[in-house]
Amino acid sequence: MSAEGCQSLARVYAVEATAFVLHCTAVLTDKAIEANGTAGSPHMGAPGGGSSAVFGPDGRRLTEPLGVEEEGIIYADLDLDEISRIKMFAHCTGHYSRPDLMWLSVDNNAKSLVRPTGAPPVKGDENARSGRQD
C-alpha cells in the first residue's frame, strides 16, 4: 500500500476512535534490500517507505513529515482534553443520537459456534434459524 493510503487509514482510525494515533513505518535501506535479496521486487525492492506520523483525534497531522528515506524520531505534545472536545462534536450518544432508531443491545443467551444448515436450533438459541425478531 502507498504511504498516502497508510496515512489515510491511520487518519480515519484517529477520527473513528476519537484517539491519538501513532502511525509507525520502517525505512528500507539499500543495505537491507541487499541483505534480504529483494532488489527489483515489487515488495521491499526499493529504498524508502518512511511515512511515520502522529494524528490527532480530529484527523489532523501533529508532526512534521520526514523524507521517505529519512530515519528519525517523531514526537508530538498531546492535549488529552482535545479528545473530549472532539467527542462533543460528533459522539454517537451525543445530541445527534437517535435512540429511537438505533441502539446497542446485548443478547445474553448462549450461542453455538457452528450451526449446520437444516439443524434444529440449540436450546437457548431460538433465533438461530429464523433470524432476530427485535
SSE arrangement:
Layout: H1 3-17, E1 21-23, H2 30-36, E2 53-55, H3 81-89
Structural commentary:
With 134 residues, the protein is mostly helical. The protein has a domain at 3-89. Helix content is 23%, strand content 4%. It has three helices and two strands; from the N terminus they run αβαβα. It has helices spanning 3-17, 30-36, 81-89; strands at residues 21-23, 53-55. A two-stranded antiparallel sheet has the order 1-2. The longest helix is centred in the first third of the chain and has 15 residues, at 3-17. It starts with a helix and ends in a 45-residue tail after the last helix. InterPro entries: C-N_Hydrolase (IPR003010), C-N_Hydrolase_sf (IPR036526), Nitrilases_CHs (IPR044149). Belongs to the carbon-nitrogen hydrolase superfamily. Nitrilase family. It catalyses: a nitrile + 2 H2O = a carboxylate + NH4(+).
Features of the shown structure:
134 residues, mainly alpha, two-stranded antiparallel ribbon, 3 helices
Content of β-strand: under 5%
Average the pLDDT over all residues and give the rounded result: 84
Major sheet attributes: 2 strands, antiparallel
The N- and C-terminal alpha carbons lie at a distance of: 41 Å
Name the poorly predicted regions: none
Helix content class: 10-25%
SS elements, strand count: 2
Radius of gyration: 23 Å
N-to-C series of helices and strands: HEHEH
Q: What count of helical segments does DSSP give?
A: 3
Oligomerization state = single chain
Q: So what's the overall shape? A: flat
Strand arrangement, largest sheet?
1-2
Structural class: mainly alpha
